[in-house]
Amino acid sequence: MGKLKVASLFCGCGGTDVGLLGDFVFLGKKYDENPIEIVYANDIDENACAIFERNFGIKPDNRDIRSVGSAEIPEIDILTGGFPCQSFSIVAQNPKRLGVKDDRGKLFFEMCRILRDKKPRCFIAENVKGILSANGKSAFPLIIKEFEDSGYNVSFKLLNAVDFGVPQKRERVIIVGIRKDLNTIFDFECLPKEGDLPISTLSQVIENAVPEKYFFSDKAIAGMMKKRETMNKGRAQDINQPCNTVGAHLAKVSLNSTDPVLLDNGRFRRFTPREVARIQSFPESFVLIGSEGAQYRALGNAIAPVMFWYVAKEVAKLLLS
Prior knowledge:
Elements: E1 4-9, H1 15-21, E2 24-26, E3 29-31, E4 36-42, H2 46-56, E5 78-81, E6 88-91, E7 97-100, H3 107-118, E8 122-128, H4 134-137, H5 139-149, E9 152-160, E10 171-179, H6 218-226, E11 262-264, E12 267-269, H7 273-279, H8 292-301, H9 305-320
Parallel strand pairs: 1-4, 1-5, 5-8
Antiparallel strand pairs: 2-3, 6-7, 8-10, 9-10, 11-12
Helix pairs in contact: 1-9
């Protein structure tokens, strides 16, 4: 049988897709090629799309997914997507149903629309840990039901990237659906668990010397120290431990925020884009282009490739068995 064909929604710069394809090296370990090919990608962020195209040779469809007809998407075996979740709310009706506050929340339904129309064998969705508790824990069961009603046997689990050899504590909910006529369900027990793999640390991915522009000014440090009892003190990281979660706004990180920073020879600094890429587990071969702000945003929004590689490998094994 040939390779499994994938449509990658909300693809961003391609963390999902590095993991899907495999055939890369991270921290000296080779992650083998998966029997998967990407036949369609979509994202509305032009800067992220440019990074994706540079690395995969595929130009993502840059349209709003709501304006993309299902017939325009090639035939696929797997649909992937880290759908935005900021806007979910529960509309109090009888029966209770899933509602949205604004347009971003509607993108979840676009994923379900494509599932119903294209009927791929499988989907893999990703979201932040907070989706489990959103709206008093009412939103997530309705999201799962919507996926199930789209024709899939659904399973999910909260995974932490650090358990997969990623030098970052990054928790994400992974949802896998297998089309019901295939009479099976994805078992997350096949994935590595806490303690199965060696822990990777910041010391393995940071630079020995970086340009001055990445260091905070004396004024910023003095301001933090003056009020340090009430400030977060920049959450300076222990380089002998995995990093705290890196986010999409690292270009604007401050010492008073909760974003991770480094204490480098007695001076505080932010991470470089390449360091963020490594913290996320992108291989050195992954090319970063565009402004640094766009790079930080794309990398901070990405799925950790190494963690997703393990998921993709087991999904492919299940579908091709």
